[in-house]
Fold this sequence. Notes:
This protein is mostly beta strands.
Amino acid sequence: MQKKLFIIIACLATLDIIAQPYIDPINIRYTNAFRHNKNNATPFSHLYIGSDLPFKTGRNSFIVLSPFYEKWNIDSASNKEYLPQASSIAIAVSAIFPLDNDHWSLTITAISRFNSEGLNLDNSFQMGGLLLAGYKIHENLKYKVGVYVNNEFFGLFVMPLAGIDWKINDRNNLFGTLPGRLTYEHKLSNNFYTGATFRAITNSYRFNNGTYLRIEDNQLSAYLDCYATKHIVFTGEAGYGIFRKLRSGAAHNKIYLADYQWGDGMFIKLSAAYRVRL
Length: 278
């Protein structure tokens, strides 16, 4: 089984659209954000468990299955009259294929998810996706452009995308797709990597009372990767969330019933992954 997995990942490594210098067949992240009374920052925790599983379907063509689970505990969710726990269970299915002679490639992704209070599947289904075109300048530099669409509970959410996959040299990489994520990575040694990451989060979750919660966070952080073995990596990350918004409203209505004044503040993130560098 392990041999088959390496064969699959090795095949994926030949594809030019790959947006990072590694792939994580399993990744677990835990975020803890701190209270900041001056900024009215509400503490929260966030758990993410996800996977990227690629399968070769043809010459330089692939299907990637990306199931994931996440859970938000805002203000520790200990006061259920304040904000309930919000959870998501989802799967993204991506088709990746070349368009011409080794320059253009296309990624089409469908994302289905249940975003709800706890894991209540009633009336919590969302469907979205993205279309992303990649253009290879040369082997170490690729650009991407596209669009992301999701049927959020506050209405249709459409966001243009722009990305880069740049191997600057043997020790430095810049990769990601904005506004979702952009990462700079620097190799310190075979066991240690460091860098900085920007992440933008926009999600909505259905509450049992019929309202929804809209979460927006923009995270700037620095991280350190420690490879305990060739493929087992632990990550420590510290950063700051800015321009945060936490609002609730009625279904498909952008007139919000409550604004929880989710202030900017610090967070730490701990991760563990089974990782294969490409």
